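hey so i finally got around to running the thing on that chain from the lab meeting. sorry it took forever, my laptop kept dying and i had to restart like 3 times. anyway pasting the input first so we r on the same page abt which one it is
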Amino acid sequence: MSWGQFGMAAAWFLYGNNKLKLSRLMNQSAMWVLPFIYILFFIGMIHTEDVAEGWHILKILLPIFIIPVMLTTMPAFSNAQKSWIIHTLLGSIWICMGIGLWLYWMSPIGSINDYRKLSPFISNVRFSMLLVMGFFLSNYLFSKKGIPYRWGPSWIYLFISMGMLIYLFLLKSLTGLFVLIILIAVHLLYRLFANKSKYSVYSLIIGLVLGVFAFFKLILNEYHRYHNVKDKDFSNLPLSTRYGSIYKHDTTRWEKENGYYVWINISWYELKKAWNKRSSIDFDGFTSNGFLIRETLIHFLTSKGLRKDADGVNQLTDEEIKAIEQGIGNVNFMNPFSIRSRIYEVIKELDYYQRTRDATGKSISTRLEIWKHTLVNIYHAPFTGVGTGDVLNTMYQSYADSQTLLHPMYWMNPHNQYLYTALALGILLAFLFIILFFYPVVTYQGYLFRIYWAIVMLAMLDEDTLTTQAGATQVAFLFSFFLLSFSYKRKNV
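ok and heres what got predicted. didnt touch it at all, straight out
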């Protein structure tokens, strides 16, 4: 990323024509948005105590200042250049998909349940944003007839978009799926009001209603599957197995899998003996992703409603034995394409967080814990913020003072760009930050730019997008590119 920006800077300096550059910049007021946001964080240096960290943050944010300026002041992209850029974007996404699939399925130390390997170079949230943009971009190229940006027949772009959609479900990024669903719903609503055909209107209404109903029904089913206990009666628990081994029952522990309690009906002797006959990995060993075999086995058997004894192990298929070896603790997690398993996983981790207040190792719960500390810190410095360079130090101090159960390994920045900005700069400048982001979409219109704008705005709810080089560079280039190349100023502005 750095070398790419160095190359852009070299081209910019060699081009010269400084008066023309200034004229172009003055005529594109919407392109000032990202540089102004950079200036907001520069202002936050005034009351920063950790100056070194502040300059480090400004260095990370530098792409949102220099890339929009360079793209605005250079000559406009030709249609051929636009086509090269969008196809490079689509092609690089597909290359990353291929590498991710290889790591996911072929790596000897990998786990089939470790879907984060599907995003090999950047966070799965940021890659999911690229997948969502790639999906809409491919559909745009598929549906628009006669545009000069296509390199082949339209069906190729339909294939590309469907591949990205499938990969997004495989990645199981809740943020990416949330953004995709919201954008599709908004798109359908727009078509609903723009289409004068009653048949089309009624079809879209029915489709939206059924889609929303199916989504909430899916969540409700997974909620009931987790919370509806199937073995409530502890008064009739069996004393021994069919072979005479004694069962161990811990009725004080509440963990469940698919409605069955985990820590009852356990014969450790039979489990160890039966498992070692079925697997080359010792019962006291570890799964490929670092969990204890014995605990993973117990959870898996529980999820199937089986007792934890020799009979239970013998009822497992060879495929299920392999899944346990890879660290899968629930039979429903064996299907990598199942969104049900991800919803169930979230319900389970939220229940665990509610009972223990420990969010360690759980993505959703960790975010809730981080946001809680962020809001407390914003409350203590609502107008000035803590300064550009003091966000992380403030968060660390907050974690330490509260004696949170969250492991220090997960003591991080706010994981929400709006909250991060409010903590760093204060609520007033955070409000200005939001206004600046809304300015281009109010003054300019264009399908691809508005799609990417919406992706960025929604993604910032779940990520402090601009605080990493990958996030800042991605937003700076694609935001500027789609605004300059695929939008036009509204007539009434």
